[in-house]
Amino acid sequence: ATMTGYNESWKNNIQTNVTLEQKLDFITKGLKFIGRFGYDTENSNWIKRVKWPELYKAEPYRDVNGDLIFTRLSEEKKMTQTSGSSGKRNEFFEWELHYNRGFKEHHVGGVLKYTQSSKVFTQNLGTDLKTGMAQRNQGLAGRVNYNWNYRYFVDFNFGYTGSENFHKDYRFGFFPAISGAWNLAEEPFMKKLAGKWVNMLKIRYSYGKTGNDNLGKNVRFPYLYSIGDGGTFNFADISVGDKSWTGKYYSSIASPNVSWEVSTKQDLGIDFSFLSDRLSGAIDYFYERREGIYMERKSVPYEVGLESNPKANVGIVEAKGFDGHFAWKQKIGKVDFTLRGNMTYSKNKIIERDEENTIYEYKLDQGHRVNQATGFIALGLF
Fold first, then answer.
1. Alpha carbon of 316 to those of 258, 288, 362, 365, 366: distances in Å?
2. Rounded to an integer, what is the distance from CA 247 to the centroid of its chain?
């Protein structure tokens, strides 16, 4: 619009997916196999051309003749050009075994799943060898579920997952979970009391663990250390003249024991549907405790002599609250009308964090909410 250059960009994205599904009823009824393989590529290129005219501004006051006074802000900039590119390749492979079957009032099911994924950047890698290495994850997960007459429900699932981010001794984590539910609407005594106006009234509870291996942007292999070049030391020697040495030092300390951040979650909830499904919704109370949060160890004193403090799984945060939503459906003439509402209340607290020791409570994150603004409450100005 102002003749200051123009940009060009190209983006290419290719996605492929192959799926194989095979029923295995000849082994046992209700058994099925699913296999998938995917290969995706993403590439982008851009060219930026920039130029700039000579710029002036008019001063707020004129000269004695009433003419404008101009001050030059920048010289003319001839057109310059920069370019760049980025690209990555994703691969994933997974297979699943599914089993679902009913035996009169008994209904059982299960899934066993293996996954592996790989992502590697293919352009603009720079000099860091880690950027050219594929990011990989691997895992085995399973679920077993049972319900009796759609009245009592029990589920168990697990994940055994490995991440490249951790040392081989701490690479895999086991994350189980269990849940149960009771649909009161299917009980004979509830049908007698409530009649047909209660379609579903389910009470459920779940307890389980999940893992997180995301240590932050561009953080990989924290179990490795790095060496840097120190400053140059010079001194004069009468026999050979001036001499100098460049030292080596640990620019980052290895954290070999870093592993998964583990979150323990509990949830107690009620699902309901009344009046021929016209009114439906759910109410949940949840509690979560995250342990092993990856963060800097700020309590390491300066006298240790490290350029940057090491990081470790040292943080603990608790969160709890409730969540609810409802929907009311009504038909007015030929129009279907739906009213929805939801509400969430959540509160968290930092239980443990590696911080510099201080007697001033307001300088600590521990005991406060995550990212809470804190400060000294003053009685006046001094």
1. 15, 11, 19, 11, 9
2. 39
pLDDT at 131 exceeding the cut of 90:
no
Tokens of 93: 């492979």
CA distances from 340 to 234, 325, 326, 334 (A): 75, 7, 6, 20
Assigned token pair, 255: 């954290």
Q: Which contiguous run of DSSP H or E holds residue 92?
A: strand 77-103
Identify residue 22 by its one-letter amino acid code. Answer: Q
Closest by CA to 281, choosing from 293, 295, 270, 294, is: 270
DSSP letter string, 37-82: EEEEEEEEEEEEEEEE--EEEE-SS--TTS---EEEEE--EEEEEE
E-strand spans in 104-223?
Answer: 106-121, 135-148, 152-163, 172-183, 198-212
CA distance 286 to 204: 12
**Cβ neighbours around 313 below 10 Å, total:** 19
Residue identified by tokens 């352009």 is: 123
pLDDT digits (tens, 9 = 90+) for 172-205: 999 999 999 999 988 888 878 777 788 889 999 9
pLDDT at 359 over 90: no
Cβ 61 vs Cβ 15: under 8 Å: no
Q: Which of 44, 23, 41, 43 lies closest to 33, judged by CA?
A: 23
DSSP 134: P
- Amino acid making up residue 306: L
**Residue 259 burial (10 A CB sphere; 0-12, 13-18, 19+):** buried
Q: Are 44 and 10 in contact (CB under 8 A)?
A: yes
Least confidently predicted of 12-26, 101-115, 335-349, 368-382: 368-382
Sheet holding 172-183, edge to edge: 5-23, 31-52, 77-103, 106-121, 135-148, 152-163, 172-183, 198-212, 261-274, 279-296, 311-332, 335-352
User: How many whole angstroms from its chain centre is CA 133?
Assistant: 21
